[in-house]
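Annotated sample (chain length 124).
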Amino acid sequence: MKITNFNRQNLAILDEEIKKALAPVLAKYGVELDPSPGSFSDTEFNKKLKFKVAGSINPLEELYLKQNGLSMGMEFTNGTGQKCSITGYNTKAHKMPVNYKNLVDGKNYKTTKEMIKFYIKNKK
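Output written by the structure step:
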């Protein structure tokens, strides 16, 4: 399939193929590709590739979580009763800095620190 102009559909396919192509190299060197969105126009697609050591935790994220009584990997039950786990803390996102993953459907979400504390405090 040759791309004549960029759109969301063909970029999703292209992005997946790029990830698959990089997978052997990432595994060889023990690094992970940090997912980040790209930007595009009809004729250009820009994507930043950010690599990190596999399994590493950003010390600044860990510090912010610790200051709020949270930790990376901490599990809780969300408002719909599904099990979730904290996956990160975005220091640049002031309104919803806590990133978490729904362990049931595998989707990633973001929320406030107060909401996570509420979920942990009010376990079902």
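Annotation: The chain has a mean pLDDT of 89.
Annotation: The first strand starts at residue 31 and ends at 34.
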